[in-house]
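A common beginner's mistake is to predict each chain separately and then try to dock the pieces by hand. The better habit, illustrated here, is to supply every component at once so that their relative placement is modeled jointly.
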Amino acid sequence: MPLIESAPALPMVRAVGVHKRYRREEVLKGIDLEVASGEVLCLIGPSGSGKSTFLRCINHLEKIDAGRVYVDGELVGYREGGDCLFEMHPREVCRQRADIGMVFQRFNLFPHLTALENVIEAPLRVRREPRPQAIQRARALLERVGLREKADAYPSRLSGGQQQRVAIARALAMRPKLMLFDEPTSALDPELVGEVLNVMRGLADDGMTMIVVTHEMAFARDAGDTVAFMDGGVIVESGAPGEILANPRHERTRAFLSRVIGARP
Amino acid sequence: MTRVVPLRRPWLWLGSAAVLVVAALLGLSIWRNPNIQHDVIVQFQFAPAILQGLRTTVVLALLAAVIGAVLGVLLAVMRLSPSPILRLASGFYTWLLRGTPLLVQILIWGNLALLFEHLGPFRTNDVLTPFVASVIALGLNEGAYMAEIVRAGIIAVDRGQNDAALALGMSHPLTMRRIILPQALRVILPPAGNQFISLLKATSLVSVIAGGDLLTASENISSANLHTIELMLVATFWYLMLTTITSVGQHFVERRLGKTGVGMHAAH
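With all components supplied together, the output reads:
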């Protein structure tokens, strides 16, 4: 019997010449990027460099003005036909987004729902999972992020770190093939950053494909497979964390790193 | 041991005494007034005609409130839609109905037969009875006010809520229904309660087209027996009962919503 040949590994995310403009201002000036399945990519760069905007283009929260974004081989938000891109029906966009988890800087938990209800909402309403099954899985996920006993708490009763961990569990409940993190620890008190980063490290160790916009250089160094430095709407350079963080080739990268780290590592 | 001596506040006491005296005098002047026949009030307070009018007032207010709420959500969503036509239509509606007196609107609906003799296959006066005209006039007017209240509620919900719901793969209508509107409700409810109290009182305006409400019933009786003030006091009592019940209900609903610990913005 012939062995089934495994297909050449497709990148989980492929961005080709992504441009984005707000009014006159061009925020993304042609982003090209590939993220392999299971890879953890950390996006660093000064604020206003377009990191978050690019992240929001990947799940089509922002429409792009030119270029293409593929997730798991599928064009996001558009359908190719001839030499045109046709905007997708919202239903199709929703289906694509359901497979891409996203975690926000300000958590964005639903304040009128308990932690558990936050986690089961999308599996119930979008995936139409049976309720008992969704609840069982949500409890397991909350346990995984260390919040088993907080299942019935409303977000306003949780610390920032706890809220962000619930938000991660909520995203994981949709069994995403890709997780996007938009500065997940920037709104946290310093002593709460560690608990969120630990959960993210665990995810990375389990082989989740992740794109993390972050200012946590230590996390980028030991959890990231790749670090990409963005400035002024372009990716200035990217490579292994050791290289980029220790021996940046570009002056802009060097200047940025010396500002965030204080002294060169 | 030292003793805490509270500050003396003579003006506070004097002011309070003055208020009590004025209130007592006012009460006496009505109670002892020879021009008011108290037995007439007693006679009509629970008269079948008055109770029938009261029922009509309640039904009118409830129907108009339901129409207003549905219309309000629809108009608010239209106002926030990406389509300039829908935005404009919603804005025009609100402009027109908030910009003209309710009394005028009621008179127009009540006399629509003068403008259109027939509505489709029906004679206008057969379809548009005073009661139906009243419900339509009050409901459409209520919609314009509710639209603004609902819109303010939707805008008050943090934008990040929309992002989070969309990122989970939720559709726009689902996001509206499950995430945005429930949170907007906390902002919507207090002004909506006030709006309903206004509506309860505004139902009295339909007496100009003989809408059959509480005031219509009171006026019908008083025009026959000429005890105008007595019957207005009868109506006043019932209006106060209705608004009081509404206020108490509003208080409890708001407290219940408050208990779920919903903060408009996530705590940091």
